[in-house]
């Protein structure tokens, strides 16, 4: 079956085919990927993927069609991207029809998918990659009218796109539970692609550290983690706290960490380096205010690092096996509950056997439930079910 995938992020796909979901999907499907990337010219694309890789690059049985985002800025860029999706998607269909459209997120990409569905008659799957009702949670403590308006727009787009689709592909169960009008929309659950088999295992480094990886820091609850670390650090003088991510607004974060020399704020790194840092962590913590299903949590689990996460989005789904409550990859705490977060960190720091058990459970769960094969089969099954009317 042929698929048109409308991508929503500007991050280029990995140079290594084994880390590319569409290379893995080529074992079951074929098609085209409409992908805006953050490059500004042809040379930058060909420096990464080789001569002749622009404007179309073949990988496996999929073809990437590039849109260079840095040619424009602001609203002009967004309009140019929407036109790229629609014009290129329709041109591809006229050359060789596709059976199913899949869109990354329920926002602009999904609306383009709805239009292309009407123009081509292809089936439509919309991926819901976050908690739509928490779109106003970003980088500020007191969301204003602008942030509240973003949530209204997010929920409006959610209803338009899903009521026009043939299926919603959720990152975790329950993301649509708050929306009565969407309860009859067919759904399936599939976490994002993570090359679990390529993630190095925890190496049992001697340095003890608590690690958070994610951005923006307010969305990921770094302030909650700093507050918890302040309370427990006197009792664990050998433990460090590391915060890793793209933090252009470092000043407020540095102010929160002031006076605590064992807190290290690290700059963003390439994913292979991030994986090495995760493998050296004693505990991975993600106390987010809003989430879909965080890729980095799966990476920590795959490395065998015990984890703690907040009860938002897909974090509980990742960490807790509903079929066996004693088989957990980590602890789930209420979002914003610093005391609960502190207690769970203390528990793991004080119990190496528990860390070992949870780490082993996480690695097993990541490999069995969230690895490459699970992604390939789940994605392909959803497409086949929609196209065949199941």
Can you describe what's shown?
The model has no long low-confidence stretch (mean pLDDT 90). Strands 3-4-2-1-5-6-7-8 form an eight-stranded mixed β-sheet, sandwiched between helices. With 390 residues, it is of the alpha/beta class. The longest helix is centred in the first third of the chain and has 22 residues, at 74-95. It folds into two domains: 2-195 and 371-387, Rossmann fold (3-Layer(aba) Sandwich); 196-369, Rossmann fold (3-Layer(aba) Sandwich), CATH 3.40.50. It has helices spanning 21-25, 42-49, 74-95, 108-120, 145-163, 222-232, 250-256, 271-279, 295-303, 315-319, 338-349, 352-369, 372-387, and strands at 2-6, 30-37, 56-59, 62-68, 100-103, 123-128, 167-170, 187-189, 208-213, 239-244, 263-266, 283-286, 307-310, 330-333.
Helix content: 25-40%
Poorly predicted tracts of residues: none
Form type = globular
Look at the structure and give the mean pLDDT.
90
Helices and strands: which structural class? alpha/beta
CATH topology of the largest domain: Rossmann fold
- Run of helices and strands: EHEHEEHEHEHEEEHEHEHEHEHEHHH
Task: Find the CATH superfamily of the largest domain.
Answer: Glycogen Phosphorylase B
| Strand order, largest beta sheet | 3-4-2-1-5-6-7-8
What would you report as the Rg, rounded to the nearest angstrom?
Answer: 21 Å
Query: How many domains?
Result: 2
Note the main sheet: 8 strands, mixed
Top CATH class of the largest domain:
Alpha Beta
- What is the beta-strand fraction? 15-25%
Give the total of beta strands.
14
Q: How many DSSP helices?
A: 13
Second-tier CATH architecture of the largest domain: 3-Layer(aba) Sandwich
Distance between the termini: 15 Å
